C-alpha cells in the first residue's frame, strides 16, 4: 500500500505570520512548501493586468485554468516567468481577497494545490488548507494575532522589501480582508475543529515555531 504523504496545514488571517511559520517548518523538516495565497494573488495580478472585472468569477476561472503555474521551493513561475514582488502590493492583496471569494476560481486552483502533496511531506499555508484542501492532514495549525499587531508586521515587511506602505491604510485593508475572508460562503477562514490554535500577538516567530514543532513531536508526526 502506498504511504500517505503527511501534510502540516497553517491557516490564519493575513499578517498572522503563517507564511513565515510555514516556511520555517518546511525548512526544518526538509518538506515541500505551498503558499496557497500566492495562487489567489497571481489570479488577481493577471486579472488586473488583463483588465478583467475582479467580480467576474467565471472569466477569472477561465484565465486561471489557462495559466501555467509551477511551484518550486523558493516561489513559483507563471507562464515561464519567475513571480516578482508585484503580487505583494496592496492593490493585488485587496484583489486576491476578492477573487478568492469566487467558487469557480477556488475550484480552478484546487488540483494545483493537491498536486503539491509530494514525499517526504508538505507544509501548506492559507485560509482553508486544514478545512477544505487537506482535511485529512495529521497536524493543523491555526495562527491568529490581533489586528493591530498584524498591521504592524505587514508594515515592517513591506518596508523591508523596499515597497511603499502606510500603517493606517494597511490596518483598514486588513480589517476589510478579514471580513471578506471570514464572511464568504465558500471556504471561509475559520479554524478546523481539530486545529491547534496559536495566538502570536505577543510571541516571537521563533517561539511559535518551537511550539509547533513540540506539538508535531508530541503527536508522533516528526
Ligand atoms: O495569505 P495571503 O495574504 O497571501 O492570501 C491572499 C488572499 O488570498 C487572502 O485575501 C485570502 C485568499 N486566500 C484564500 O482565500 N485561501 C487560501 N487558501 C489562501 C489565500
**What is the second-level CATH architecture?**
3-Layer(aba) Sandwich
CATH topology grouping: Rossmann fold
Largest beta sheet, briefly?
Answer: 5 strands, parallel
Low-confidence stretches: none
The small-molecule ligands in this entry are: 2'-deoxycytidine-5'-monophosphate
Query: Kindly, what is the distance between the CA atoms of the first and last residues, rounded to a whole number of angstroms?
Result: 21 Å
From the alpha-carbon coordinates, what is the Rg to the nearest angstrom?
Answer: 17 Å
The arrangement of helices and strands along the chain is: EHEHHEEEHHEHEHHEH
Lateral strand order in the biggest sheet: 2-6-1-7-8
CATH H level, superfamily name = P-loop containing nucleotide triphosphate hydrolases
Briefly note the structural class of the backbone. alpha/beta
Number of domains: 1
Total count of helical runs of at least 4 residues: 9
Q: Class, according to the CATH hierarchy?
A: Alpha Beta
Percent of residues in helical segments?
40-55%
- Principal-axes shape call: globular
Number of strands: 8
Mean pLDDT: 93
Could you tell me the strand content as a percent range?
A: 15-25%
Characterise the protein shown here:
This protein has a single domain (7-209), classed as Rossmann fold, CATH 3.40.50.300. The two termini are 21 Å apart. The chain is globular, with a radius of gyration of 17 Å. The model has no long low-confidence stretch (mean pLDDT 93). With 222 residues, the chain is an alpha/beta fold. A five-stranded parallel β-sheet has the order 2-6-1-7-8. Strands 3-4-5 form a three-stranded antiparallel β-sheet, covered by helices on one side. It has helices spanning 18-29, 36-49, 57-66, 90-99, 103-114, 129-133, 147-160, 167-183, 205-218; strands at residues 7-11, 32-35, 69-72, 75-78, 81-82, 122-126, 139-144, 196-199. The longest helix has 17 residues, at 167-183. A hairpin with a 2-residue loop joins β4 and β5. Helices cover 49% and strands 15% of the residues. The site of 2'-deoxycytidine-5'-monophosphate has 14 residues, from α2, α4 and α8.
